[in-house]
Amino acid sequence: MGAGGRMAVPTSNAVEQEKPLKRVPCSKPPFTLGEVKKAVPPHCFERSLIHSFSYVVYDLSIAFLLYYISTSYFHLLPHPFPYVAWPIYWALQGCNLTGVWVIAHECGHHAFSDYQWVDDTVGLILHSSLLVPYFSWKHSHRRHHSNTGSLERDEVFVPKPKSQVGWYSKYLNNPPGRLLTLVITLTLGWPLYLVFNVSGRPYDRFACHYDPYGPIYSDRERLQIFISDAGLLAMTSFLYRVVWAKGFAWPVNVYVIPLLIVNAFLVMITYLQHTHITLPHYDSSEWDWLRGALATMDRDYGVLNKVFHNITDTHVAHHLFSTMPHYHAMEATKAIKPVLGEYYNFDGTPFYKAMWREARECHYVEPDEGDANKGVFWYRNEY
C-alpha cells in the first residue's frame, strides 16, 4: 500500500462483525494550513474574556451545587439510599470537574482570553485545585502539539515499535490481560505519566513533571515549574487541613473519588484521540507538522461532549488551531471538513467500546512490509 492509500484494516475479532476500517491518508495533504484557516470564519479565532469566564462560573456553580446537596442531604436519606446517592454524585461531579480541567487546558493554550497573565492565573488556580501541575503540564503539552505523531519527539501516548515492546505484552493480549491493562491505565495512568513519564517520549535521564531541572523543561521554564509545585503544595496543605477537621472519609467521598474519575476521563480522552488502528505515526524521515496534526481522531461521547466542552469531538480542529476557544470549535470543525476531505478523522464508536477495541488492536507500530515509505508506522497486535 502506498503512503496515501485508504487500505482496509481488518480487526482481529471477526465474531464482532465490525466493518473494515479505512486507513487515513498519510501522504502530503493537497492543502496548506493557511488554506484550511481561510475556510474558518474569522470570529472563530476571537477570544472573549467574558464568554470564557461564563463557563468557569457555570462549571464551578454546578460543582458547588453538587457539593451542597451531597453534604447537606445525603446523610438524611434512609438506609440504603446513601449508597445509591454517593455513586451518582461521584459520577456527576467527576464529569463536571473534567469540564473544569478542560477550561484550564484551554488556559494553557492561551485560548481563554487575549491576556496571557489571565490565562495563566485562571489555569494555575483551576489545575492546582485538581492536583495538576499547571505550568509543568502546559509546557510538555505544548511540545505534544508541536510534535504530534512523531515517534521520536511526541510527548504522550507514544507507541513503541515491536522490538521495544516488553516481553510480558504478549501475555496480556487476551481479555483478562486487556481488562487489567485498562484498569491500571485509567486509575494510575495520569500520576504515572506525571511522575515517571510513562507513555511519554524517551529522555536520556529521569523525566518527571514535578522536577524543575528535569530534561522536559528548558532553563527559561524552570521558575514556572516551581510555581506549579507551589500550587500543588498549597492544595495538598488545604486537603490535609480538611482531613484533620473532617476525617478521612469526608474528603474521599467529596473530592478524591470524583478526582479519580476526572483522571480516568483525561487519560481515556487523550488515548482515544491519538490511538486508532487507522492512524499513522511517523519517524523523522517522514514526519512533518501538518501530517502529524491530522493524525488525530474526533470521537463522540454523546451528552458528555457538551459537559467536556467539545474537547472530544473537535480535536482535529484543536490540533490545527490550538489557540481557538472551545466555544467556536464546533463551527470551525464544520467549516474545515470540506477542505480536509478524507484527511478529517472521526469515529462515532461509543467510547467504552472504543477503549476495548483499541486496547485489543493497538499494541505496537511497524511500517508495512514492502512499502517504500518505511517512515510511516501503523498499529499492530500480532506477536
TrEMBL record:
Family of the protein in this entry: Belongs to the fatty acid desaturase type 1 family.
CDD domains reported for this sequence: Delta12-FADS-like (cd03507)
One Pfam family in the UniProt entry: DUF3474
GO CC aspect terms: membrane
Organism superkingdom: Eukaryota
Domain Fatty acid desaturase intervals: 86-344
Pathway(s) where this gene product acts: Lipid metabolism
Record InterPro entries: FA_desaturase_dom (IPR005804), FAS_N (IPR021863), Fatty_acid_desaturase (IPR012171)
Residue ranges of domain Fatty acid desaturase N-terminal in the record: 22-65
Gene: fad2
Spans through the membrane: 55-76, 179-196, 223-240, 252-272
Principal localisation: membrane
One of the GO BP terms on file: lipid metabolic process
Location of the protein in the cell: Membrane
GO molecular function per UniProt: oxidoreductase activity, acting on paired donors, with oxidation of a pair of donors resulting in the reduction of molecular oxygen to two molecules of water
Annotated signal peptide: none
UniProt protein name: Delta-12 fatty acid desaturase
Protein species of origin: Paeonia ostii
Entry keywords, A to Z: Membrane, Oxidoreductase, Transmembrane, Transmembrane helix
Taxonomic path: Eukaryota, Viridiplantae, Streptophyta, Embryophyta, Tracheophyta
